[in-house]
Amino acid sequence: MLYGGHDDGQPCVVTAPDAKLITGVVAYGGSVWVRPDFRGLRLSRLPGRLGRAYAASRWPLDWGISIVAPVLVEKGVATGYGFKHASRSIIFPGAPTGALENVLVSVSAAEAYADFAEILVRQSLDPAASTSASSASPSLIDIIDTKTSSEGVFQGSSNRS
């Protein structure tokens, strides 16, 4: 959170009740910056969902999380990112710019899959979308199985065989 060596030895105070609920395989989605002339086009809704979709395709995902500024929760931006829960607070009292309060936002795996399906259905109903998408099955999630690696292959393994 405090890059450039500013995080060395700095405290982090977590009082967010949801932090105790988040266990298992967790995908953290970082920040996104959108050029000012492209803001307001809802482009920030895509990267987090794409990241969670990729993580869910590779690992048995339990949660997707991020840490956002309170204003992003208040304005509904975090909901636009696909997060269903917001829990205050994560505070960095020793931040170079002063104490920073953040909010833990999260989405369970089941909620993330439902969000993916909703986005795909919405896309298939868009008149600008291709007509082939409209013939998709109403059930977009048939099997939730994200164990794609063979036995003995672990996250971070440098063996490319």
Quick description:
The protein is α+β, with helices and mostly antiparallel strands. 25% of the residues lie in helices and 17% in strands. It has a single domain, classed as Aminopeptidase, CATH 3.40.630.
Key structural traits:
single chain, Aminopeptidase, 5-stranded mixed β-sheet, alpha+beta
* Secondary structure category: alpha+beta
User: What is the helix/strand order?
Assistant: EEHEHHEEH
CATH topology: Aminopeptidase
Report the count of strand segments. Answer: 5
Q: What would CATH call the architecture? A: 3-Layer(aba) Sandwich
How large is the count of helical segments? 4
Radius of gyration: 18 Å
Provide the residue-averaged pLDDT.
Answer: 78
Sheet bearing the most strands, described? 5 strands, mixed
Report helical residue fraction: 10-25%
Q: Please list the strands of the largest sheet in the order they lie side by side.
A: 1-4-5-3-2
Shape: globular
Ends distance: 35 Å
Would you state the CATH class? Alpha Beta
Low-confidence stretches: 129-146
- Into how many domains do the coordinates divide? 1
Fraction in beta strands: 15-25%
Describe the model.
- The protein contains four helices and five strands, in the order E-E-H-E-H-H-E-E-H.
- The chain has a single domain, classed as Aminopeptidase, CATH 3.40.630.
- It has helices at residues 45-58, 70-74, 77-80, 109-125; strands at 13-14, 26-28, 63-68, 85-92, 100-108.
- Helix 1 packs across helix 4.
- The radius of gyration is 18 Å and the shape is globular.
- Mean pLDDT is 78; it is low at 129-146.
- A hairpin with a 7-residue loop joins strand 4 and strand 5 (100-108).
- It is of the alpha+beta class and 161 residues long.
- It has a five-stranded mixed β-sheet with strand order 1-4-5-3-2.
